[in-house]
Each structure stands twice: as C-alpha cells, then as structure tokens.
Amino acid sequence: MSILLLLAQLLVQMVLAVVILVAAAAIIWLLWDTTVGPSARAAAARRRAPGVARP
User: Best label site of 3, 11, 15, 19, fewest CB within 10 Å?
Assistant: First the structure.
C-alpha cells in the first residue's frame, strides 16, 4: 500500500476522532448545563422568585 494512502487514512481517522470528541463534549456540556449548571440555577431562581406571574 502506498505511503500516501496510509497518511490519508491516518488523517481521516484523526479527523473522525476529533469530531467524535467534540460531539461528546457538547453533549456532556448540554447535560451539565441543563441539570446542575448556570441554566438550571437560573431556572430554579426564576421559579423561586416571589410575586412573579408564571406563564
């Protein structure tokens, strides 16, 4: 097999690995943000605000 084909295959594998890692990080960040992160804290504070009409 040509060295160029091996290098191309390695490049494709590295790009796929980076894409998978970024996607996993995004999913983990979204789960954290909506469960214990700032968005969840802000939503809890809005629920606790006295005298605010709830939609």
Answer: 3
